[in-house]
Amino acid sequence: MAQTNGDAVPASPKAEFLSVESILEEHVPADKLAQVKGVLYGLNCGKPVAAVPLPAELTSAAAASGYDLQAYRFDAAPEQLRPPRIVRIGLVQNGIKAPTTAPYAEQREAIHQRVRELIDAAGAAGVQVLCLQEAWHMPFAFCTREKAWTEFAESVEGPSTRLCQELARKHNMVIVNPILERDEAHGQTIWNTAVVIGNNGNVIGKHRKNHIPRVGDFNESTYYMEGNTGHPVFETAFGKIAVNICYGRHHPMNWQGFGLNGAEIVFNPSATVGALSEPMWPIEARNAAIANSYYVGAINRVGTEVFPNAFTSGDGKPAHKDFGHFYGSSYVAAPDASRTPALARTLDGLMVADCDLNLCQQLKDKWGFRMTARYDMYAGQLARYVQHDFKPQVIRDPSLE
Amino acid sequence: MAQTNGDAVPASPKAEFLSVESILEEHVPADKLAQVKGVLYGLNCGKPVAAVPLPAELTSAAAASGYDLQAYRFDAAPEQLRPPRIVRIGLVQNGIKAPTTAPYAEQREAIHQRVRELIDAAGAAGVQVLCLQEAWHMPFAFCTREKAWTEFAESVEGPSTRLCQELARKHNMVIVNPILERDEAHGQTIWNTAVVIGNNGNVIGKHRKNHIPRVGDFNESTYYMEGNTGHPVFETAFGKIAVNICYGRHHPMNWQGFGLNGAEIVFNPSATVGALSEPMWPIEARNAAIANSYYVGAINRVGTEVFPNAFTSGDGKPAHKDFGHFYGSSYVAAPDASRTPALARTLDGLMVADCDLNLCQQLKDKWGFRMTARYDMYAGQLARYVQHDFKPQVIRDPSLE
């Protein structure tokens, strides 16, 4: 299976496997596999999440161009007073396409070219709402702590937005465009931002990443601060969407914030590596879909990015030039606890999913999480907790005195 | 493989399989299995979660008595200024042991006898903190909506507590005892309560279930209301523990509440059935362990319980006498996203796990979720949300007008 993140980029030092799903499909007999998948992937309307056929020219183009193309469908129960509200969403994961030593303009153009190809494929597949990965227009260079990489930062109206606007108009598609933003209105401040572009090509608005990591080589707080845009929900032609950027997925109240504002689909554009977070990846986005009764599109970067200068990682190990393997594995999780398989761990990819948005309210009514959430109790608890002299509610065993 | 929930109780109508793990172990080659488990079960200190050997007399007693006995170890990194703080915890899952048509005293005594056997085994295995499943002393009869079953309710000082006190003293063990509580001090009100018993046999305190389901046949709101005990953390001889009872696992802020008060281990005693919740089961407790940097012991009832009178389920299907299969599958999740395999789906069981509590603070420092949580922002959001005239933060695409 070809690595697709560019000949110029060395493969990961350890051999990476394609996907958990490909191993299970190869080795577990069909009847047993159905039992395993029933537990691990759930059921939608009582059945396994169904694959959707795509035109043969799309699947052969994907094979020829070396990216993983998968498509699935989430149904809802028929209702008497509402028609189905089926939205076709798309998730794009991609590696960088030129070595990090190439001129920046060339690096950006190489990624633009690949992403244009993938969005055009999504358009041909009828995708209506698409999300790209975090800071998709550049290498994820924050591991280096070098400030030169901030040249990649763009304004909300910059070249990556313009590309997405062109493609949004071309395909009548809402596009979520996560960029490294330079905020000219506030003295060239840098943010980690998702620009939401409507299906008519206009910028509807932006959301800035609420929670910023200081984990391992994710030195993002060296570059930008916590966002100041709250938890906006964007009402588009194809549903109410929101964006929980990367590390925000570890914060259940961040997911909840978008839910309280009415999101039906929340995208989680990410960039995360195997040794750090892979066991969390199938858990957090899915938990959010369950707890908040909405769809989640979880998107991760793919490939290994090698930087010009060696850097240390605060772990006592020798300086090195790469950050680990971005394991892709993008997937869609539904409010009924079902999910799609993951895209490949080692290939660019496009995940297509038909989502009946009626499922969101159906699950709210079935499980009643909003009704039973006791928000007033938690508003009080948090108001107390943020006081510096907060006293935890602890009952100490008196027999220990 | 023998069903252990009593000869008098019919097996589930559909054949139930033992566990996902047993299927994977049987069919997936070792090298591939390591890759799959690395993603699905995580790594602890860079290695698969290790099994711990138990004395041969314990494993042979478990086999002879038809329960699943498993033991694992979670390590933390060595520290210079703190010794390891290793606590051996135990989770017990069990079926009912007499038909639901038997006299209530006989039903309760039959369960007491089995649970005494399992706690004695835990004591022999050196377990220091043990938790039983939700309302373990009775069939989970709330599906029937019949009030007669409330006879099983007990005061906090009742017979099931007295059994646990005796065993706590005998084994120098903290025992979490989840009962259906009758509150004599408040006019015989019924609650769903966990009584926490110290290793000296004293009752340290109680916690009442914060969130009550109205889902499928879980007619619990017919019997009892939302708890009034907040999010207490119990400081025991072996660490700070808390109890998130059953449906509270679907509420991320409930998990968080115990974390804010300093819990190091949170038990989730549950009673839930396959068709309803099984795909959620591996997700929610584990997400809580990750997000709150504590251990979670997730415990589910096992077996199929058949009631004397047929009841309907609000789904248009004919009246029936059972509620579905309680799928067991109890497991321990660690703050580093690793977890144990699950206990069997069809057998009583005892899960033993050594948990180095130092791992909690180490993960807090590694991931910084507390530091980056922006509680003040969420305190404000919730205070606004609970107002009846709350206006969601929605940005509508102006081009749609």
Automatic annotation (TrEMBL), chains A, B:
Molecular function via GO: beta-ureidopropionase activity
Reactions catalysed, as given in the entry: 3-(carbamoylamino)propanoate + H2O + 2 H(+) = beta-alanine + NH4(+) + CO2; 3-(carbamoylamino)-2-methylpropanoate + H2O + 2 H(+) = (R)-3-amino-2-methylpropanoate + NH4(+) + CO2
Pfam families referenced in this protein's UniProt entry, alphabetically: CN_hydrolase
Class of the enzyme per the UniProt entry, highest EC level: hydrolase
GO annotation, biological process: beta-alanine biosynthetic process via 3-ureidopropionate
PROSITE patterns: CN_HYDROLASE
Functional pathway: Amino-acid biosynthesis; beta-alanine biosynthesis
UniProt-listed CDD domains: ML_beta-AS
UniProt domain CN hydrolase: residue ranges: 87-357
Keywords recorded for this protein, A-Z: Hydrolase
EC number(s) on file: 3.5.1.6
Hydrolase listed as a keyword: yes
Family of this protein: Belongs to the carbon-nitrogen hydrolase superfamily. BUP family.
Protein name: Beta-ureidopropionase
